[in-house]
Design goal:
By secondary structure, the protein is α+β, with helices and mostly antiparallel strands. The chain has helices at residues 2-7, 9-38, 72-77, 99-102, 153-199, 205-240, 273-289, 302-333, 338-350, 355-378, 393-417, 421-429, 434-445, 447-463, 468-471, 498-507, 512-547, 549-552; strands at 47-53, 56-71, 88-95, 106-110, 123-128, 133-143, 146-150, 243-248, 254-258, 262-266, 292-293, 298-299. The protein folds into four domains: 2-41; 47-119; 140-270; 302-552, MetI-like (MetI-like fold, Orthogonal Bundle). Strands 5, 6, 7, 8, 9 and 10 form a six-stranded antiparallel sheet that branches. Strands 1-2-3-4 form a four-stranded antiparallel sheet.
Length: 553
């Protein structure tokens, strides 16, 4: 045994076991996130049963979200009468929906008090723009208050009219977000132009009055264009709200729901596997490309995906040249003495500073100092309302660049250190200057190390949340930082971020049960996004490594 320990084999097995456990934990975590996140988009059957409690009964209609087994004592403490010889009880978490009618969305029911489960074919689930899902039985379809379909024909009529309603609502969103948004921005620019004219002391009173009159004429023209679009918007909304459906709830009440308030309608109990797969794809696509609703507990996460990618992209553009130049200076040009050693120690220590400290620094320096001075110099007509003097995309990206700068510096400097001395001496012996040797020989060969630093920086930056809450990330950003309005890329706008979205949905949501699957789904998207970014950088690094492999050998 003593000889076995001296051979080192136990330590090899110990390291191998630790690596295996780590891999199993990572794979298990990804599987947990994937199963719970992706399972959210699968259409479960709609269950109808009757709940009996102390002589009263209630018809329950909804989908089962969770099933678990608890001790009978726990149920007895909640006031339910369970036989004394029973130790375990099964309970079901039903997604009942109809929050606007009953004030509840999810509720636990004890299995011992439920009748046999039924799956009525007439049961429908409506995904609404407000108040969450609705469960009931479809009765009829109305247009302007007149019944146009009922019975079995009602559902097919519902689907065709729902598609038309969604098209109309999409048109209203386009007019609101783009056409009216463009006019409002143009009116705001004219207002700022008038303010700029008033602040320009070099103009005479006649010139000032003439320019202001021209601006006011342009504002009047824009207001007329706005009124035309507003009337068109009102007409579209009126047409979209003509159609409605009548549904009967589990307690027998008939409810009228305008189709303009419905996103999709499904009859899960009559759907085949193929139809469920198609519905799954439609829901997942809507989640990836849609905008959030209902305090981020419904809808999609496209603004968060776009904001995350945009911020990481800008951060990479900023941190790469600064980190590489700093590493080149420390390794190739700086005199290796106490001062250089102190700088290296400081860089290494910066990598361990809590990220929230960088957020406070970014808020104080980038937002208040730098952004405030930019507003004073270039946007005086907008003051006291800030332009760059408030949190935004550019400041979030610069804060992350500062946060990840030590990683890039250390990685690049290590790559420069590993380059053989003979390569430098050979280049100099052939007559190249030090600068030519550096930029034509040393830097290209060390490019894979630079990409390694960028990979580590992207992996850390994409998942950061704490500093971004101070310098530019918000719960809901209605406008993307890139659009068709000049200057097309709006670095001063606030953005949404997948990491902050997970925090907000998971810990700030008023409906925890509805938000829980979205937390897993969003976390899975964030992990996938980081994986895609890293794999892209790794592919570039490997190509560069193969390109300069012979030079490094």
């Amino acid at each position: 045994m003593k000889q076995w320990f001296k051979s080192g084999d136990p330590w090899i097995w110990l390291i191998g076991g630790a690596v295996s456990i780590s891999v199993i934990m990572v794979v298990g975590l990804l599987l947990l996130i994937g199963v719970r996140g992706l399972g959210h988009f699968w259409q479960p059957p709609i269950v109808q049963t009757t709940f009996h409690d102390q002589g009263q009964q209630e018809v329950v209609l909804g989908s089962i979200r969770q099933v678990e087994t608890v001790t009978a004592q726990t149920v007895r403490e909640a006031g339910f009468e369970v036989p004394e010889d029973q130790d375990l009880v099964t309970r079901y978490l039903f997604h009942l929906g109809n929050r606007d009618l009953t004030g509840r969305d999810f509720q636990w029911f004890i299995g011992d008090f439920l009748d046999e489960f039924e799956y009525p074919e007439s049961a429908i689930m409506l995904e609404r723009r407000e108040w969450g899902n609705f469960f009931g039985h479809l009765v009829s379809i109305k247009e302007d208050g007149e019944v146009v379909a009922e019975g079995e024909a009602a559902f097919s009529e519902l689907q065709s009219r729902l598609r038309r309603s969604n098209d109309l609502m999409g048109e209203t969103v386009r007019i609101e977000r783009y056409d009216i948004g463009r006019i409002n921005r143009a009116i705001e620019m004219e207002r700022l132009e008038q303010r700029r004219i008033e602040l320009n002391d070099s103009l005479s009173s006649e010139e000032r009055a003439q320019r202001i009159a021209q601006s006011e004429a342009e504002v009047a023209r824009l207001n007329q264009e706005y009124q035309v679009l507003f009337d068109e918007l009102q007409e579209l909304r009126s047409v979209a709200r003509r159609d409605a459906l009548v549904a009967r709830t589990s307690d027998g009440r008939e409810v009228t729901i305008v189709l303009a308030d419905v996103v999709r309608a499904t009859r899960a109990n009559t759907m085949s596997i193929g139809q469920k797969v198609q519905e799954y794809g439609a829901r997942f696509w809507a989640f990836m490309t849609g905008y959030p609703r209902e305090a981020n507990t419904e809808g999609g996460i496209f603004p968060a995906i776009f904001g995350t990618v945009m911020m990481v992209f800008i951060m990479s553009i900023v941190v790469t040249p600064f980190g590489v130049l700093a590493a080149i200076y420390l390794r190739e040009y700086a005199k290796q003495g106490p001062v250089t050693r102190i700088v290296r120690i400081s860089v290494n220590n910066l990598a361990g500073v809590p990220s929230i400290v960088f957020g406070v620094f970014g808020l104080g320096f980038f937002v208040y100092f730098l952004g405030g001075n930019i507003d004073a110099l270039f946007y005086p007509e907008r003051l006291p309302a800030p332009t760059f003097g408030s949190p935004g995309l550019i400041w979030a990206s610069l804060t992350l660049a500062l946060l990840t700068l030590p990683v890039v510096i250390v990685s690049t400097e290590e790559g420069l250190t590993r380059i053989p001395k003979a390569m430098r001496e050979g280049s100099l012996a052939l007559g190249a200057t030090k600068a030519e040797t550096l930029w034509k020989v040393i830097v290209p060969v060390s490019t894979p190390a630079m990409m390694t630093g960028l990979i580590l920086a992207v992996a850390r930056a994409a998942g950061e949340v704490a500093p971004l809450m101070l310098v530019g990330v918000v719960k809901l950003a209605p406008n993307l930082p890139v659009d068709g309005q000049f200057p097309f890329v709006h670095l001063e706008r606030r953005i949404m971020h997948l990491g902050f979205h997970i925090y907000d949905v998971g810990f700030q949501s008023p409906n925890a049960e509805a938000a829980r699957p979205l937390v897993y789904a969003t976390a899975l998207v964030l992990v996938g996004l980081i994986l895609i970014l890293n794999l892209s950088a790794i592919a570039i690094r490997n190509r560069l490594r193969e390109r300069y492999k012979s030079a490094g050998d």
